[in-house]
Amino acid sequence: MYAILYGGACVTKHFGNMPVLMIGRFLGGIATSILYSAFESWLIFEHNTRGFSENLLGTVFSNAALGNSLIAILSGVAAQFVAERFGYVAPFDLALSILLIMAVIIMNTWPENYGNEKAPVKESFQKAVKDIKEDPNVLCLGLVQSLFEGSMYTFVLEWTPALSRASGDISIPHGYIFAAFMVSTMIGSSVFKLLQQYERPESFMRYVLLLAAVCLSMPIIAADNIVLVFGGFLVFEMCCGIFWPSMGCLRGTYVSEETRSTTLNLFRIPLNLIVVFILWQNFTMIAIFKFCVFFLFAASVAQHALFMRTENSPRHQKLPISVDEGENL
């Protein structure tokens, strides 16, 4: 279903018709929801069913994160290559080809499973809401996730006009730039492994969020300087690379296992509202980046509140954790 829906979204790019393109975005939205839930659920269920060690599951996710970054880099280069030769729609056709290959492999090699079909959805939703209301740690974590990811998704839509302006409206190689962003994300993942040997994520993420705010201020204070703007964007992507594994560790510590999926989806509601609000108002590019900087500063404040609440928590007496333990997390 993921391949079919996202394949349909790719096909709509051949039509210069707004309603058709909106249908494509609708299909892409459903497909993205499947991407971030069904594949992981399938993997965990199949892993447990086959009796594999729980420690190996952490290794799988760690390797998947590395593989995702590598494939993203190759995808950026490939997209730039076909776009230069066949036009800007060509990368979507390339993606469609890969989706078809993926669908054939899955249908012929993956056994079907449905997980727990009797999961109490209503009860899980109510408990997730209760956890957010009653546990300040979960609330702080949700604020950090929503504010950072809201800024990040806004950045995804604004980096092209920002770099175009800084370069003097000269055509920029989008695919190669995207590949550079993914390299920076990989570097950030490696930096996370170093940081966690000395500090808890609750602590060092405060400074990472502040650094991210400074990076996105470059289009505001140096809008016409391509070096500062592009350099700031690269460092921001490195902050993203630190953010993802850090949030995984924090969610594993503070969010209840039985309501984790529901809680994370609830956190995505304000995230999307932030992006919709900013774009709906048709603000200038500078104003949009000012909002992003404000949200990132606010996220650092929420992160500091989480740090202060948990600084002397008994569960952290053995931290900092080792690199191997971090990879398993």
CATH topology of the largest domain: Growth Hormone, Chain: A
Average per-residue pLDDT, rounded, comes to 84
Biggest sheet record? none
Please tally the β strands and state the result. 0
Comma- or semicolon-separated keywords:
mainly alpha, 329 residues, disordered C terminus, Growth Hormone, Chain: A, 2 domains, 14 helices
Describe this structure in words.
GO terms for molecular function: molybdate ion transmembrane transporter activity. InterPro entries: MFS_trans_sf, MOT2/MFSD5. Keywords: Membrane, Transmembrane, Transmembrane helix. The protein is mainly α and about 325 residues long. It folds into 2 domains: about 1-120, no CATH class; about 120-329, Up-down Bundle (Growth Hormone, Chain: A), CATH 1.20.1250. About 80% of the residues lie in helices and about 0% in strands. The protein contains 14 helices and no strands. It has helices at about 1-10, 20-35, 40-50, 55-85, 90-110, 120-135, 135-165, 175-195, 200-215, 220, 225-255, 260-280, 285-310, 325-329. The chain is globular, with a radius of gyration of 21 Å. Residues about 315-329 have low confidence and may be disordered.
